[in-house]
Design goal:
Blueprint lengths: L6 E4 L5 E5 L2 H23 L7 H15 L3
Antiparallel strand pairs: 1-2
């Protein structure tokens, strides 16, 4: 499990206001959340119809062609 080194920020009454964590640990948490979200999305669309590789390439090319400023 990921160990998180926390520093608590408190007010004058010692009421916790925030938590600071090292940027490296924050970036790891972001990566974990993104991977989890991607896995959930893959699971959700697993039963849907899929484009063939060629159809996907053609669709991507049409998006590029329609969104490039001249």
């Amino acid at each position: 499990m990921l160990q998180i080194h926390k520093t608590y920020v408190v007010d004058e009454n010692q009421v916790p206001l925030a938590v600071q964590i090292p940027i490296v640990e924050f970036e790891k948490i972001e990566e974990i959340l993104e991977n989890f979200g991607l896995a959930k999305l893959i699971d959700e669309v697993a039963d849907e119809d899929h484009l063939s590789g060629e159809d996907a390439r053609n669709y991507y090319q049409s998006l590029k062609a329609n969104h490039v400023e001249s």
